[in-house]
Amino acid sequence: MEDLLRPIYQERASSPNTLGILIIEKNKPISPVTDNFDVILLVVVRDLAEDWFVKHYEFENKTAAMHVVDEKLLYYWIDTSTYRRAVEWIINGQIVFDRNEYISNLKEQLDIFPQEKRKLKMAMEFAKLTRSYMEAKDLFQTEQYLDSYSRVIRSLHYLARLAIIERGYHPEVIVWNHVKRIDPEVYKLYEELTKSNEGIDKRVELMLLAVDFAISTRARTCAEHLLELMNRKEEAWTFGELKLEPEIEAYSLDLSSLVEYLTEKNIIEAIRVDTKGNKIYHRQYKAKLV
To answer: Tens digits of per-residue pLDDT, 24-70?
Structure first.
């Protein structure tokens, strides 16, 4: 198949701005990783006029999609899991063009999964986990058991992704089979929720307790990315200042629930600052030292 596609990607390979090209073939009848195309071509380019554009092709009763992506956008996808399939493509794709071993080095970086990038991903997943857990708890307390159940499932998914990250892997597409091998305890929670013979209200109630414990034991480690940023200055932060920090843009939408949870757990201190209003205070935040 590579021979058939060579005329398509050779033009790209001849450009001095093209850093590398990968080919990813569909290997099963239904293939979400390739958007069900028979082939994906990923072309990584430096200083691309458009950050990302896609072309579709058809040949010999097969289909192909070529994704031409600027390297800055690609790194953003990798760091923030914005487009998870891209990580799968890099990890599993076959290199057909590699300028100065750019793609080989990128594959190696993904395999190593540097600690700083791991901290960011843990903070992102933990922020989503705290929000999902609080939503599940609220729905349970108002006896919306089916809705609470769906939020608990989502919470367990975030917890599973955290378990994978903690062990130095990228949790992009396939999660539960991976978790079953590397963290049986988290997998057991999923089985207990989905396969138990208890009523749905009882299952959700028990699982909320289990998730609460799992979150609280991970809280400081998973929030390290945020706590390190907050400790860069001695003064307390307003929420608005935190939200504007470029380094936490990837989880800024879940920042409020994360900060509230960490405050409840006494990991972040809420400091009251006087306003002109009687008994009304501004709330600022300071990370507590261990």
So the answer is: 998 888 888 888 899 999 999 999 989 999 999 988 888 999 999 99
The closest of 128, 133, 125 to 151, measured between CA atoms, is 133
Cβ proximity of 83 and 185 under 8 Å: no
pLDDT at residue 263 greater than cutoff 70: yes
Q: Note the helical H segments in the chain.
A: 2-13, 71-80, 84-92, 102-112, 115-141, 145-166, 176-182, 184-195, 200-222, 224-230, 239-243, 255-264
Residue 254 contacts residue 128 (beta carbons within 8 Å): yes
Instruction: Judge whether residue 2 has pLDDT over 70.
Output: no
Q: Which amino acid is at 158?
A: Y
Structure tokens at 25: 């073939």
| DSSP-derived 3-state class of residue 77 | helix
- The alpha carbon torsion through 168, 174, 177, 181 (nearest 10 deg) reads -10
Please count the other Cβ atoms lying within 10 Å of the Cβ belonging to residue 58: 10
For the entire predicted model, the pTM comes to 0.84
